[in-house]
Amino acid sequence: MKVTLLNPNRYIYPPVIPLALEYLAGVIEEGGYDVNVLDLCFSGDLYGDIDKHFAVCDPDVAGVTIRNIDTGIYGTKECFLDEIGDIVRYIKNRYHKPVVLGGSGFSIMPREILKYAGGDYGVCGYGEKAVLKLLKNIENSDADYDIIDGYNTGIDERFGHKKKIYFDHNAYFDKGGIAGFETQKGCNGMCSYCYEGRRKVIHREVKSIIEELRIVTASGYNRFHLCDSEFNQNAGFCEYFLEELIRAKIEMNWALYMKPVSNSRDMFALLKQSGAGAVTLSVDSCRCTASNGFYSFEDLKNVIRYSREYDIKLAVDLLAGFPYETKDSVRDVIDFFKKYRPDTVGVGFAIRIHPNVEMEKTVLGDENLRRYLSGSPDDGYIKPVYFKWLTPEDIKEFTGGDELFKIGRAHV
């Protein structure tokens, strides 16, 4: 069976190498299938490029990744699913091939997106085992389901990806893209707005991570951004990985997302030695001011202190304006950052609502909160629905014009 994996993500601010699709192509190839890729990111003739590819490769199955549903920028109306749906229907109508949808964006609401985009099958969550099972069922004509749940199908503990480059990385690098890699899957976070949390964290085999970084840096490129939800979910694993990365003597500069807890001076020392030059710290305003908060102002102070001590740039991604939060609590968090001053603070005050997450249930269950919705959940969530009771004027008042703060970034 021949399989084509398509990347329809044409958003180029910046362009993002389809890392997960590259990992998946390797898994499919190791599973005994003839796999090839079609990258439409920089295409000037979408359907002409599809026709050229299908004329040469003639795949039996087409897999289409959906990284994002839309830009995630509050106030914009661009929906990537419209063009993706056109691509899916074009392949089905012209070539009569089954189309499989997957990816992180698809996994947010798989059934709704499968229907909207017109795919035949979908892979929700981890694709490594699920896609091989689905391909086998399609090959044997016994795929008696339309969506396979990769979270339940699972992934091996200490899983490994054997790196093989399927996409033209230089095309991305030349336009400002940065290479990515992952060290783990899953997230043990409890964020009320996120569909990825509350999942077991499964760590990748460190040997395979090091091998992948060697392959990419050997091509002459050494800038990376970690693709984990949050790096520091297991301090023991993180420190072991950093020690091995330092021992490997790979010359690289990389950036990562971290949460305010499970940090130490030792970890930041290892980050610095490993080539980490920038950290983005994810902070929810309600979590450090509530009496039962998940982290404290002291936790935040420690991260700021460690980053300064080891000369690592620290950007804070602050999300504010949660249900039942007060303006005073938001002001307290902003005043804290005014005083302790990381390198920059991006302030988002519109929170994207996804189906079947805790925040959806909270907001829809309270008529007083529903009035702060932008967009209608009754129309489904294909078009963005945001919860927003704070205004740009509120944030400007709290920040007082301090240039430390960048206002308006929406959170998805």
Short description:
This protein is of the alpha/beta class and 412 residues long. It is built from 15 helices and 18 strands. Strands 7-10-11-12-13-14-18 form a seven-stranded parallel β-sheet. A six-stranded parallel β-sheet has the order 2-1-3-4-5-6, sandwiched between helices.
N-C termini distance:
37 Å
Rg over CA atoms:
22 Å
Portion in beta strands: 15-25%
Largest sheet: 7 strands, parallel
Strand order of the largest sheet: 7-10-11-12-13-14-18
Let me know the average pLDDT: 94
Please describe what this structure looks like.
The chain is of the alpha/beta class. It has 15 helices and 18 strands. It has a seven-stranded parallel sheet with strand order 7-10-11-12-13-14-18. A six-stranded parallel sheet has the order 2-1-3-4-5-6, sandwiched between helices. Helix 2 (46-57) packs across helix 3 and helix 9 (235-248) runs parallel beside helix 10. The longest helix has 16 residues, at 80-95. The protein is globular. The protein starts with a strand and ends in a 5-residue tail after the last strand.
